[in-house]
Amino acid sequence: MKIFIRSILMLVLISLPCIKSFGQAAQFKAMYLYKFAKGVSWPGASSSGDFVITIVGDNEMATALKKSVASRKIGSRGIVVLEASTITQVQKSDMIFLGESKSDQIQKLIESQNGNNVLIVSGKGGWCEYGAGISFVNKNGALAYEVSSKNLQKFGLSCSQEILRSGTNVD
């Protein structure tokens, strides 16, 4: 029995760094989402009302983002983070983060947002090709992102030179 308990403890101790790194990835992505929100221009952006970010299919990301932006603002607008488990639950948003597990639904999301000025960010690399404005990627073990100016323009958006320089422009 002692050997079994020791084995379980060793397994838990070995797993902790992996668990911590997953949490850190969500925290870094949350910081990037805030950076994107500040660096993207929405036409006729209202200075009233909340800036709404919806997280689809990634509870860990939603939790990290809520903590990260708790007292921050975009201009004079407070930030509200909503969670949705499916595309059909997405309400009017300024930014939508599509978790990796829901990335295959990007076409449905784009169709549902037609005519809205919304930034679609994918948690899965390479999804600018399928319509995301920004897509997180893993570059040599580090978190990075791709930007599609064409996809941003389809939703009436533009981004700062800083966002373009810091990411990889795929157009």
SSE topology sketch:
Elements: H1 2-39, E1 40-41, E2 51-56, H2 59-68, E3 73-74, E4 77-84, E5 95-98, H3 106-112, E6 119-122, E7 134-139, E8 142-147, H4 149-154, E9 158-159, H5 161-166, E10 168-169
Parallel strand pairs: 2-4, 2-5, 5-6, 6-7, 8-10
Antiparallel strand pairs: 1-9, 3-4, 7-8
Helix pairs in contact: 1-2
Task: For this entry, give a set of tags.
171 residues; Rossmann fold; 8-stranded mixed β-sheet; two-stranded antiparallel sheet; 10 strands
Describe the structure.
With 171 residues, the protein is of the alpha/beta class. The chain has a single domain (26-169), classed as Rossmann fold (3-Layer(aba) Sandwich), CATH 3.40.50. Helices cover 39% and strands 25% of the residues. It is built from 5 helices and 10 strands. The strands form 2 sheets. The protein has an 8-stranded mixed beta sheet. Helix 3 links the parallel strand 5 and strand 6. Helix 1 (2-39) packs across helix 2 (59-68). The longest helix is centred in the N-terminal third of the chain and has 38 residues, at 2-39. The chain starts with a helix and ends with a strand. Mean pLDDT is 85; it is low at 4-22.
